[in-house]
């Protein structure tokens, strides 16, 4: 299996997933169903996570089909530009969904503004994902004449959207144009890492039995700090990837890191959606957590450790994969 | 100024050469992993304490947060040891770069602020008076500023070195 196959497996997930999330979100208003709205927000967050491996598998896919006859470089670039724009809106929608989920747990706080922002962001994200899907599909099923060098035909809406889409090579060059910009991104990546590990580490260790004089609930209130760290690191991480796409994509350690992050998503879902969190919330000072909670906490600690180790080994495993 | 000869001697030792040049995964990047884990433990713990002192999550009791100093010290000593190994691997690169000394000074200042923070937490009573809270905020801001400086200096080392190895300018 090559990156082209991996990209094919993944690439329908963000497009169809965000449409499903959006549909559930709209339905929750017509039925006034709060659980449905929470479910839609969870889908938005999950799609934001799954969009990351989809995006990064595209570079390897491009490399493996580039030299095939019938593949137009112009169409590939157009798809890449669409993805580079859409990515940020899908990630922003996921971040806002997590913020809305956090806020929905605080009784008495109005959700109105957040819902309106979510609605606007979701409309744009859905549109851009559909555009990314269509331009990607056009690589294998081009309009007649495109391969003979005719201009790529755009419908009126596509013509407008394409103005905002970055030129892939230009975006890449911009990221690596200055050592200082790059160094700044890496410093921010370390800042984000410290915020994540500080908060998530303490939370997991409390569940494991460290600092039992703390109740669980106030430690959990620190979570927005870790979420800010995560937002910083997804932003700087994806910008770094865009800066050196071929460097990361052929790297075993990079893919193991992405894999560990996906498993962390699963682990988080187990924690919040299977009742573990509901029991932890009632954990008073001095009380011991149950075994399922300790298993989830230990898994999280091991996976974050793996994320750091793999991240550090990316340079060592440069060009370790063929594509 | 001529580069001191002992840097060359150190670079030619078996250990230094091995960390730099080995094909094994337990060489240079293995040391870097420890340096990174140490950073996460130290700065992560310190960030949680600092944001609490700045007034984030006031319902989180202060005194139990002293327990986090276990990880501050584990992180610190991990990084002293891994830092020494990194220095053995590239002594000329580090010691001819002024930023390296700035980083060490920032680490020293950061550890002093953390030591004072630890004492502050030990004495902190749960009913916070305004003067006490103000001192907590000041410690937190110094701490965040200094450790951000350490991270920045550490990262910038790679871009400001005059030499990679002895007699090998960048």
Report on this structure:
The complex is a heterodimer of chains A (323) and B (170). Chain A is an all-alpha fold. Chain A folds into 2 domains: 1-166, no CATH class; 167-323, no CATH class. In chain A, 77% of the residues lie in helices and 0% in strands. Chain A contains 14 helices and no strands. Chain A has helices at 3-10, 12-30, 34-65, 73-104, 112-140, 156-164, 168-176, 179-208, 216-220, 223-243, 245-249, 252-273, 276-281, 291-313. Chain B is an all-alpha fold and 170 residues long. Chain B is 73% helix and 3% strand. Chain B has 7 helices and 2 strands, in the order αααααααββ. A two-stranded antiparallel sheet of chain B has the order 1-2. In chain B, strand 1 and strand 2 (168-169) form a beta hairpin. In chain B, helix 2 (14-21) packs across helix 4 (69-89) and helix 3 packs antiparallel against helix 4. The longest helix of chain B is centred in the C-terminal third of the chain and has 31 residues, at 130-160. Chain B is elongated, with a radius of gyration of 19 Å. The model of chain B has no long low-confidence stretch (mean pLDDT 93). The chains are: A mainly alpha (323), B mainly alpha (170).
């Amino acid at each position: 299996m090559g990156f082209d196959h991996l990209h094919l497996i993944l690439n329908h997930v963000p497009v169809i997933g965000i449409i499903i999330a959006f549909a559930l979100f709209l339905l929750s208003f017509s039925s006034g169903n709060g659980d449905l709205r929470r479910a839609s927000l969870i889908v938005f967050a999950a799609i934001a996570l799954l969009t990351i491996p989809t995006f990064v598998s595209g570079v390897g896919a491009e490399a493996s089909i580039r030299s095939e006859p019938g593949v137009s470089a112009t169409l590939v670039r157009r798809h890449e530009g669409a993805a580079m724009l859409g990515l940020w809106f899908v990630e922003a929608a996921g971040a806002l969904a997590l913020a809305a989920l956090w806020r929905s747990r605080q009784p008495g706080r109005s959700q109105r503004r957040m819902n309106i922002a979510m609605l606007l962001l979701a409309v744009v994200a859905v549109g851009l994902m559909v555009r990314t899907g269509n331009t990607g599909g056009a690589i294998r099923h081009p309009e007649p004449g495109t391969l003979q060098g005719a201009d790529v035909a755009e419908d009126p809406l596509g013509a407008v959207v394409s103005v905002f889409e970055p030129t892939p090579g230009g975006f890449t060059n911009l990221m690596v144009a200055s050592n200082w910009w790059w160094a700044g991104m890496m410093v921010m990546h370390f800042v984000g890492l410290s915020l994540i590990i500080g908060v998530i580490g303490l939370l997991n260790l409390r569940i494991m039995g460290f600092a039992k004089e703390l109740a669980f609930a106030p430690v959990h209130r620190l979570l927005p700090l870790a979420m800010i760290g995560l937002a910083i690191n997804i932003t700087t991480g994806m910008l770094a990837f865009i800066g050196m796409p071929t460097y990361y994509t052929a790297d075993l350690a990079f893919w193991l890191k992405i894999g560990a992050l996906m498993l962390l998503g699963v682990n988080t879902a187990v924690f919040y959606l299977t009742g573990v969190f509901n029991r932890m919330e009632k954990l008073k000072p001095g009380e011991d957590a149950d075994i399922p909670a300790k298993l989830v906490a230990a898994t999280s600690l091991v996976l974050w450790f793996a994320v750091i180790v793999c991240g550090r080994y990316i340079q060592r495993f440069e060009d370790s994969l063929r594509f | 100024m001529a580069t001191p000869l002992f840097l060359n001697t150190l670079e030619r030792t078996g250990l230094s050469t091995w960390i730099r040049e080995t094909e094994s995964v337990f060489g240079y990047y293995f040391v870097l992993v420890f340096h990174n884990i140490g950073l996460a433990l130290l700065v992560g713990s310190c960030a949680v304490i600092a944001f609490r002192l700045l007034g984030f999550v006031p319902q989180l009791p202060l005194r139990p947060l002293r327990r986090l100093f276990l990880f501050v010290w584990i992180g610190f000593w991990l990084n002293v040891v891994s830092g020494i190994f990194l220095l053995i691997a590239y002594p000329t690169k580090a010691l001819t770069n002024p930023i390296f000394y700035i980083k060490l000074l920032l680490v020293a200042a950061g550890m002093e602020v953390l030591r004072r923070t630890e004492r502050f937490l030990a004495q902190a009573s749960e009913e916070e008076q305004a003067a006490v809270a103000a001192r907590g905020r000041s410690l937190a801001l110094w701490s965040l500023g200094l450790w951000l400086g350490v991270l920045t200096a550490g990262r910038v080392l790679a871009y400001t070195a005059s030499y990679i190895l002895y007699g090998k300018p960048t």
